[in-house]
Amino acid sequence: xxxxxxxxxxxxxxxxxxxxxxxxxxxxxxxxxxxxxxxxxxxxxxxxxxxxxxxxxxxxxxxxxxxxxxxxxxxxxxxxxxxxxxxxxxxxxxxxxxxxxxxxxxxxxxxxxxxxxxxxxxxxxxxxxxxxxxxxxxxxxxxxxxxxxxxxxxxxxxxxxxxxxxxxxxxxxxxxxxxxxxxxxxxxxxxxxxxxxxxxxxxxxxxxxxxxxxxxxxxxxxxxxxxxxxxxxxxxxxxxxxxxxxxxxxxxxxxxxxxxxxxxxxxxxxxxxxxxxxxxxxxxxxxxxxxxxxxxxxxxxxxxxxxxxxxxxxxxxxxxxxxxxxxxxxxxxxxxxxxxxxxxxxxxxxxxxxxxxxxxxxxxxxxxxxxxxxxxxxxxxxxxxxxxxxxxxxxxxxxxxxxxxxxxxxxxx
Length: 413
Description:
Blueprint: E1 2-10, H1 13-43, H2 50-59, H3 75-97, E2 118-123, E3 129-130, E4 136-138, E5 142-147, E6 158-163, E7 169-176, H4 179-185, E8 192-197, E9 201-205, E10 210-212, H5 216-232, H6 239-273, E11 276-280, H7 284-287, H8 293-299, H9 301-315, E12 318-322, E13 348-350, E14 357-359, H10 360-371, H11 402-412
Parallel strand pairs: 8-11, 11-12
Antiparallel strand pairs: 1-5, 1-7, 2-6, 3-4, 4-5, 6-7, 8-9, 9-10, 13-14
C-alpha cells in the first residue's frame, strides 16, 4: 500500500523565494485550466482535453510575454498542477453522478495566493534527489535542509513540498510498502478489543482500561483567545497583522500536531497488541451540530478511526465497525437484556434481569466487541459479525433530522 512520510524542511531565504515562485506558477496554471474549462462550458463547447491544455497553457504560454516567467520553474511542477485540475473535475463529475462515495463535491474553484496551504509536487522524472549530506535537491530550487526523523523504508515515487498556514515547510514522500515486510514487523497476537469512544474518556476498552481525553483545544483556549484578540486589534493589510496571524496559525498547528501524535501513539499501540479491533460508527457530522460540537471536534474521533483502519490494513489486523444504532450502552453485556434509555448523567446502572452492576462505558465497549463478533477471534482467523435486522425504532428518519437523531443517539448511549 502507499503511505506518506512527511519531514520538516528548512529552506534558506533564496530557496524560500524560489519555492514561492514555484507555488505561484503552479497556482496560475491551475487557475488557467479551470478558467479554460469554464469558458468552454459557458460557450457550449466540449471541455478541452488534458493534452490540449498542456500545449496551450504551458508550452505556448511560455513563449508569450504575459506568461514567460513560467519557464523559471520546473516543467514537472506545472504538469502536475494540470493533473490536479483534471483530477478535481473527475471527482466533481463522479460525485455529481453518484459514483463517488462521501459528501457531494462542488465544482473546482480558483486558488488564491492567500490560501492557507500551498503545495507543489515533483515526480520521479523531475530528477529530484537526496544528497549524501541528507539534503533534498529540487530542480530550480536547490539543496534544501531536511530534518530526518526516521529513515525512508523504500525509494519514494514522488515528493510534495508543502507550506502550511503557520509558514512551515514540509517534504511529503510517497512510499510503496511491502505487505509481507509490514506483517513481519508486527508481533502476532490472539487478543481482541472493543473500543467505546467518548468525551469523558477518549476511549474505554473492553479490557476495562480507560484512556483519558487530552482535550488539547480546551487547554489551549486561553492562549488562542489572546492571540485572536491581538489579530483583531491590528490594521488590515499591515505587517503587524500578518505577524499576529502567523502567531495564531502556529498556536493552532501546535494543538493539531499534539492531537495527531496522541492518535498515532494510541492507534499503533492498539494495533500492536490486538489481532482484532471493534469500533462503533459514530455520526460525527451530526454530533458536530449539537452543543457538544467543540468537544467532538477536539476529540478527533474520525481521524483516530481512520488511523486504525489503514494501520490494520497495513499490518494484517482485523478492524470491524458496528452500526451506530446498536444499543451498546443500554444492553447488558452479561445477559444481553436491552434496557431503557440511559441519559449521559447515568454513569453506572444495574441490569434488572440479572442484577449485574455495569460501568456505562466499559459495558458499551464489551457490547461493541461482542456485536463485532470478535470475542472468539483467533490470531489469523477473521471473524465477521452476522447480519442482524435493525429494530423499527432504529431505522429510517421517522421525522427526525440528522442532528436530532445524532443528539438522541448520544443521549441514549
